[in-house]
Amino acid sequence: MSPPPPPLGRGRKRAAQAFDAALDDAELVAARASLKQGRWTAVRALLAATGDDWDRRGHRVTVLAQEPAALAWARDWQLAEPESADAAVLLGGATVQRALKGKERPERAREACHTAAALAPADPMPWLGLLILECALGAEDDVVQLFDEVRHRYADHHHAHHLMVARLAERRAEAGQDPLHEVYDFANWAAEQAPADSPLAILPVVAHAERYRVLATAGREPADPVASGHWVGRRARQVMKAAFDWWLEWERDDHARRLVDLNFLAHAKYCEGRGAEAAALFHRIGEHATPAPWTYPDRDPHKAFRAARDSALGAV
Questions:
Q1: Of 37, 267, 271, 309, which has the fewest Cβ atoms less than 10 A away?
Q2: pTM of the model
Q3: pLDDT per position as a tens digit, 213-230
Q4: Which domain of life is it from (predicted)?
């Protein structure tokens, strides 16, 4: 592996940039800036260059769709190029984001995504958009069906698996610390069926954090994840060790959403009390923190991330 970057600064400006959904995708950042200025041609070029790298395409479209002006510019793009599948996909994603904020009817978002799916039948992104929507608003049967639609097009879809883990973790909060809970079964199954170098190997760690979120929100775990002991049981330690060992052997610097995984793994290692291992992960994360899982169950994610990072880096 390449050596870690130098220790992080503590500046206020850097903290303000910590939760950029684009993560370290410089091309995405540039295209997003152009979109803000009304130049959708940069987005067209970006998505064309992304091709069928489905995880990267899903990441890029989802981030672009979160921009307040994305819907208007996607409509302009679609008027200029009515046969463009990329324009339709971005329009669908942007409509989903507005529906989640209560600024658009969910039916309109569903319609936009289905229109995009018809133009791009092999693309999992329209179905991912629908999955994002129904995870927030829909019934579980709809969520499962949409997850299957995504997997039919790309079996190892990273974002879709994370969404399913978060949704499954919410089942049976009253069961408490059940090591046989279905979210653990699902995460283990997904990790086992994925290729050896797939970042889905980290999914059991994600499941552990999502289940903590549910239990802590329900008052069945302490609000302080370190004090909860959720990461120090025998099963938890096995899961964390397997995930960390995978990272050491297979580190995927080329995966669009790898920093999401690194944040979950750093959080787990910090909560487990493995400061040196957490420090190695914090070095890799750099300034690219993600709100989840640092916000779990109801914490200030900036403060939680910085406190964990400072503690881990100060221990080595």
A1: 37
A2: 0.93
A3: 999 999 999 999 999 999
A4: Bacteria
